[in-house]
Amino acid sequence: MKVVSSMRNHAESVQELLQTQTIKVHAQIYSELFKVVVRVSKNFPEIEAARPRCSSGIEALCLLNDGIVKAKSLLQQWSESSVLYLALTGDAILSRCKKTRNLLERSLCQLQSMVPVLLAAKISGIIADLRSAAFFLDPSEEEAGRVLRELIHSSAVDYTEEAALAALRTVSSCLHISSQKALLTEKRSIRKLLDKFGERDSSKRKILIFFLNLLKKYGKAIAETQTDNAASERGNHLPIPNPYLLTEDVELRAVYRSNESHINTLSRPVPPQEFICSLSSSLMYDPVVIASGQTFERMWIQKWFDEGHCTCPKTHVELSNLSFTSNTTMKDLIIKWSAMHSVSVPDPKKMQEGFLRSWDSINSVASLTNSMVGLNIPLDYSNVSMGSSLGSDYSNTMISNEVRSTHEIDWKFLSKFTTLPWDTQCNAVGDILKKLIHNEQYLAGIPLRKFVRLIHGFLKDAYDRHDMEAQMTGCQLLYEVVRKHSNSVSYLKEDEYGQLALLLDTEVSKQALFILEELSNHQQCGQKIAASGALVVIFNILDSQIQELLEPALKILRNLSSNGDVRSFITPSELMPKLVPLFEDDNLASHCIVILRNMSDNEEARVAVAYTDGCIAAMAKVLESDNREDQEYAVSVLLKLCSQRVEFCKLAMEEGVIPGLVCISVNGNRRAAAMASEMLRILKEDTAGENSEADAASIGSTPQRNDANPPKASRFLGKFFAKSSAKKK
Question: Against a cut of 0.90, is the pTM above it?
């Protein structure tokens, strides 16, 4: 088949020798696109070998082949083009790179569900790299493009030689066309493009002729020196591999090592190897440890086990069991590293959920006609006379304008956000929210620190203006950001937490609670939430009994109470009376019992639990529920109480905990049953001790108690332990 043959050709091209060229403009974009092509090309043989032969698989293979061909074509055109022309079409090139990246991502997403789990995990890593690839224009090159567009526009209106010379000097400075050698190279590049375009692209020819005449007329004036300065040239240009002679990543890195300064500028930070899942080759979002002691991404190791494997994917050792536990230490380290380097770690589950979403159509990148998008400038050269007339037939010609890709946010627009009218700001925030909900990579390439500050500023203004609708939209946007970009939480400062605490007392309290609930999942946020004053309002919400607010408020307290550094901010004597009424709701009771379990490590909290009216009784009710996890937590709290003080044992027995404990000791899960048995042992010893003391005190003074009628608790415990002894025998 044609597609298979093409894919094999791609695989073969990876083995060829590496050759480099000098990319003189937009080197960052070229470098990112090239790395994408290398990564995808390197995996062609394995993808083809998986042979997804269904109709959708063939279509996906065709898309992948089309994407790599388009990317190589764009890179080849790039390496052969004029510096001035590349600067002029910078926005178009940026758009084409993003569309090509999206085409590759789309095809890989479709193929991922059709291949074995190990290859699927590897494809997931490639997709993550594609989504994290940041394409942006260098400010100086962007400025050069703007000056060139203004120069072309003014050439038909109020063109002067002084203005042309000043503009060309600015452009040459931005693009480093400052020596005779650079000028000569640029002229040759323009002539090659003229030959390539031929007569079929008259509009492009006229632009190139315009540039060529500028260089001929003013070249000597703008040259800084007549002597070639090769060292300076090398300092300004990055050697980039030929896109048609791709090789392995090792060779690619060898090329980049030839210019260390550009490595630091253009390459994304490389995470420590232990942060990478060996299945997906990506940063781990939810690392777990398996029986072999190796750490993997939760989703991918689960898929590995689901396929019937009983060995460790890394060591190939047969596992004693297929269980795994969260590696919280590793996760914290990854979060800190990601925050330090402004790297987003996507949730692979959410990535998979979005695989079937609709995509914008991908247009051809083979023609440079479409590379003039986004300029929106009139081309009227009828009055230009620079040694060669451009002709009057192009009077009032307009270069087509194309809508920006909807997959990535326009940071240039957001940088001017605060200067916009309030209605425009509100509409923009609403639009960003809608797009982020449907595409979690919408913020790719945007500095999250600045974006979080922007949302905070918007929420503050909305609060000051008493604009409830704007507060609602702003809260929803902030929630989506912190939920989908976990490293964004590190950029929230005290002001943001204080603003959220204020919003808890408004009509958007529910949305503010959702944000705080998400933040409370991150250990580093706990103290900031507590210090913001939010706990006071959350306590008031528990008193208010507003049903829709109770669960998120309890979830926040549940998360915060698990943090030892934050528990000191929570006053047990104030909290316990507020929790007791909530035990009537089984769903809320599950959160309440976990809060009690978390708090009961503290003596002050144990005292508050024991002496708060109805608290032990509420736990006794939980012991008799059908939720085994809740039962375990309730037994845990009671065991912590009764193992510390004798009077707590009396209170527990008075509230009728024994029947529930007996049932759990027999039917509960292993941990709960063990704790329930220990609890019953403690209660029996306490009861026996009381009886002995009572008997001793009654000798010689009062009639002895009739042993035929012992207290009810003693009778129950006696029967239970008698049955236990009989079973052992």
Answer: no
